[in-house]
Fold:
Amino acid sequence: MARASADSVLSEMDQRLVAALQWDGRVTAERAARALGLSPATVRRRLQALGADGTVRVVISPVARPRNGGSAGALFLRIRVLRGKLDTIVAALAAREDIPFIDITTSGDEIFAVARTEPGSRDPLIFRQLPSTQAVTSLETDTILHVFRLTSEWRHQVLTVAERTALSPADPAPEATASPGPYGVDTDALEQALIGVLTPDARLTAAALAARTGHPESTVRRRLAQLTTQGRLITQVLVEPRRLGLPIEAKLLLHVPPDHLATAGRALADHPSVHGAFATSGPSNLHAAAYFPDLAALYGFLSHDLTGLGITHIETALVSHAAKRTPAPVQPQR
Structure:
């Protein structure tokens, strides 16, 4: 019974609240209520319930969009392992801070993961640790060259245009994307402290942030407003897609001729099912990930939506389990 409850599809209202959080991870109950035509008390009660049982978590995105869509400083890993050793390898990868995403495919011996690393570096994980692990039978690595769509930018398609407009933060200030730093600007100690505390729970109040960082609440409020205005507080909603009525997740490895690569990448990024799209090194130079309500929808995507994009080869892998979506929740003190 517990399993059925965990996999059950959320109510329409709860799905709309999830979508509201995707547009603004720190949206207040009052603002969400105005946009969605609900009472603030109802929104507050449902958001608390969704967060309390772990159904929905709002975190700071583990990967920020690089300026001009350029390299994200990350690798896609495709790892095949001996049957019976899958759980051991997954657990070892999940314990690493430089591995934010891990997916297990339906083949039962295959892992897709993302590793944060410096472009061109001889990362010990890639060059020594994984190749020397007897349980690993093959390892493929592809460098992310260009970002078309990040998971944090995907939106569940259950809101009207007017509702999305009411929930969307203002466009970032142009100068926020012109300087170096992880969010397009240099950071200071206060910002680093706030991001560190917000990373596992991006909905913490200014009062809670002030208590945890030791800074005055008024200072915290001003800096949060600044980060939001400049588009540097990038949140991501963690929710099991099955709860949104999207039980099928597919990894797509595509080969596209150079003169079609940018067009195909943008087309994928604009598709409502696609929650990740990247130009990469390797024989499959375009990677994508997408959610679907059923296999028929996936077939329609492959046979219809991808036509005319110049794709010459496609490999589709179905995800059976998302083993890691960083960051991990904070464990309560005993």
